[in-house]
Amino acid sequence: MNNVFVICEMDEGKVADVSLELLTKGRTLANTLKCKLEAVVLGHKISGIEKEIIPYGADVVHIGDDPKLSPYTTLPHSAVINGLFAETKPQIGLLGASTMGRDLGPRVSSALVSGLTADCTALEIGDHEDKKAGKNYKDLLYQIRPAFGGNIVATIINPDCRPQMATVREGVMKKEIYSPNHKGEVKTIDVSKYIKPEDLVVKVIERHMEKSRVNIKNSSIIVSGGYGMGSKENFNVLYDLAEAIGGEVGASRAAVDAGYADHDRQVGQTGITVRPKLYIACGISGQIQHTAGMEDSAMVIAINNDANAPINKIADYVITGDVMEIIPKMIKFYKKNSK
Amino acid sequence: MGLKIIVLAKQVPDTRNVGKDAMKADGTVNRAALPAIFNPEDLNALEQALRLKEKYKGSTVTVLTMGPGRAADIIREGLFRGADDGYLLTDRAFAGSDTLATSYAISCAVRKIKSFDLILAGRQAIDGDTAQVGPQVAEKLNLPQITYAEEILKAEKGKILVKRRLERGVETVEGPLPCVVTVNGSAAPCRPRAAKLLMKYKHAKTMSEKQSQSEDYIDMSADRPYLNIAEWSVNDVETDDKWLGLAGSPTKVKKIENVVFQAKESKVLSGSDKDIEELMKELILNHTIG
Ligand SMILES: Cc1cc2nc3c(=O)[nH]c(=O)nc-3n(C[C@H](O)[C@H](O)[C@H](O)COP(=O)(O)OP(=O)(O)OC[C@H]3O[C@@H](n4cnc5c(N)ncnc54)[C@H](O)[C@@H]3O)c2cc1C
Ligand SMILES: Nc1ncnc2c1ncn2[C@@H]1O[C@H](COP(=O)(O)O)[C@@H](O)[C@H]1O
C-alpha cells in the first residue's frame, strides 16, 4: 500500500525508454520513502515483459494483457488504471509525458480527483509547512517544472490528494539498471473486471509513420544553421542538438538557397521573425537581413570560425571555432550534465 | 443536419515571443510585456470547428472561455473569425484554479449549455503547457476524448473520424458523438478575421463591459441581440464550491523561481572541452535548456 507506481508504456513491443527512465527515478524515490516501487504495463501479447522492467528496480509488476488494450485508446486504459489505483492506493503515480501519458494522465487524475503536474524536469521528496492551516506535511513529492514559456520554474505539491501524479518527458531522467538480480513479483490484472463495453467506443482505424510539418515560430529554442555549415549532411548535427535540448532547427537564407534546409525554416527579413528564449547561430555571418528576424531573442549563442563575424556583436556567447567540432561537443556535454 | 460545436478557448499571456523585456531587472516576469492573446492551439481548434460548420449546413460554433472580464476579447475574436456566439465564465470564485478546478467549472458551464454534439479544445495552453483541461473536461462530462487531433475528417451520423498526430506518426481514429477533441498546433491555422464580421460584432459586449462604459455610450443591443455576450458567474452554473478555485485545486504552487536572463555583454569562449562544458552546465543551471 502507498507505494510509488510507474505506468509503463509499450513502444513497438518493448517498454518505452521514458518508462525505464521513470522506473530509475521511481526507484530512488521509493528508497527515500522506504516503500516499494510498482510498475503497471498494459498491452497485448506482452507476457514476459516483466524481464525488461524488474532490473530497473520494480518490486511488483502488474500486467494487463488483453486485445482491448492494444493499440492504445484512452478509456480501456484509464478504466484499468482507475480501478487498480483505487485498490492499491499509490502515493505517487508517474507517467511519460508522451502522447499516451498526456492523454491518460489527466483522465485518471480527474477521475481520482488527484493532482497532476505535466512535464516535470525534476522530482524530489521534501516536507511542506502550510502556515495558514497550521499543518505540516512530511515526504511530499516536489514536482518541479518550468512554466510561463520557461521564464519561471515552479515547484508544485499536492498536499492532500493521492496519488501525487506527474508526467516527465523522454530524456529528462537518467535510465539506469538498478540491479540485474533484482527480484520482483508479477501480478496479473483481471482486465475484464474493469473494462466495460462502452469503454470501447473509440477505435483506431489505421496508423502510419509520417513526417510532421515544422513550426519554428512556436519553439522557444532555435538551433539555426548558415552557409558555414558546409553541407546538407552537416545540418544533421543541428537536428541532433535541437532534439537533445528540445528545440527546432532554423536556417539562414544562404543555407536555404544552398539546399541545406527547407524554406519553411528560414529566419530573417524574407523568412520568419523569431524571438525565442535561446537562439544558437551556427555558421551564420549575421547580415542585417538575417539578424532582423532574430535579434530580439532573449539569448544568442554564435558559433563561427571568424572571430569578427558581425553576428558576434549581438551574441551573449561567442564561440570561435569550427561548427562541426563544437556542436557535437555541446550535445555530449549537455547529455553528460543534464541528468 | 447541423452540428452544435463548443470551442473551449483561453486567453493567455504570449509567452512564446518573450524577447528581451520579458523579465524585469528584479527577476520577476514582466506581464506588461506579454500581451494577452488567444491561446494559439485554441485557434487551431476554432478553425476545425469553422470547417465543420461549412461542411455541415446548419451547424453552430459557440466559444466558451473562463477567465477575467477582459477575456471577453476571446469571444469577440471568435465572432470576428466566424463563431456564432460565446459565453464568458467569470467569477472571483474561480480564481486560483488549477487544471482540475478549471475543468470542473468548464464542465458545469457545458452542462448548462446542455445541447451539443462536439467539444473542441486546444491541445494545450501556452501559459502552463499542461494539456490537461481537455481530457479532464471529457472525464467530468463522462464523454470519450480524442487528443492530438490534426484534422477532423468527418463528423456525421453520430460518428467522428479524426486524424491524430503522435510522436512518430499519424493515426486515424473513429469515435462517437458527442465527444471531446483536442486539436494540435500542427492542424490548419485559423482563418483571419473577416472584415464583415468585424464590423458586425465590433460592439459586442458583456453586461459588465456595458456597465463600465461612459455615459455617452449608445447601447445598440436592444434590436441587435447578437451584440450581447453572455456572461456567467458561479451562480449561473450549478457548481459545488468545494471543487472550485484554490480550494478545489489539489495541486499547489510551493515555490516559484524566476529564470534570470543575462545582460547583453558577450562572453567569448573557445571551442575547448572545458569551455563548452561550462557553457552547457550554465545553460542547464539557469534553466535556459533542459
Ligand atoms: C532582399 C534580401 C532579403 C534577404 N532576406 C534574408 C532572410 O530573410 N534571411 C537570411 O538569413 N538572409 C536573407 N538575405 C541574405 C543575407 O543578406 C545574407 O546573404 C545571408 O543571411 C547570409 O547567410 P549566412 O550567414 O548563412 O552565409 P554567409 O554570409 O556566407 O556566412 C557564413 C558564415 O559561416 C562562417 N563559417 C564558415 N565555415 C564555418 C565553420 N566550419 N565553422 C564555423 N563557422 C563557419 C563564416 O565565417 C561566415 O561568417 C537577404 C538578402 C536580400 C538581398
Ligand atoms: N480558462 C479556460 N477557458 C476555456 N478553455 C480553457 C481554459 N483553460 C484551458 N482551456 C482549454 O483547454 C486546453 C488545454 O489547456 P491546458 O490544460 O491549460 O494546457 C486549452 O487549449 C483550451 O482549449
TrEMBL record, chain A:
Source organism, top-level taxon: Bacteria
Textual note on the cofactor: Binds 1 FAD per dimer.
SMART domains found in the cross-reference section: ETF
Residues annotated as binding FAD: 252-253, 266-270, 283-290, 304
Single Gene Ontology MF annotation: flavin adenine dinucleotide binding
Keyword line: Electron transport, FAD, Flavoprotein, Transport
Cofactor dependency: FAD
Any single biological process term in GO: fatty acid beta-oxidation using acyl-CoA dehydrogenase
Chain ranges of the Electron transfer flavoprotein alpha/beta-subunit N-terminal domain: 4-204
CDD domains from the UniProt entry: ETF_alpha
Family: Belongs to the ETF alpha-subunit/FixB family.
Protein name listed in UniProt: Electron transfer flavoprotein alpha subunit
Species, as recorded: Alkalitalea saponilacus
UniProtKB/TrEMBL annotation, chain B:
SMART domains linked to this entry: ETF
Electron transfer flavoprotein alpha/beta-subunit N-terminal domain boundaries: 26-216
Matching Pfam families: ETF
InterPro entries: ETF_a/b_N, ETF_b, ETF_beta_N, Rossmann-like_a/b/a_fold
SUPFAM superfamilies linked to this entry: Adenine nucleotide alpha hydrolases-like (SSF52402)
Alphabetical list of Gene3D superfamilies matching this protein: HUPs
GO molecular function: electron transfer activity
Alphabetic keyword roster: Electron transport, Transport
Top-level taxonomic group: Bacteria
Protein name (Swiss-Prot/TrEMBL): Electron transfer flavoprotein beta subunit
Organism name: Alkalitalea saponilacus
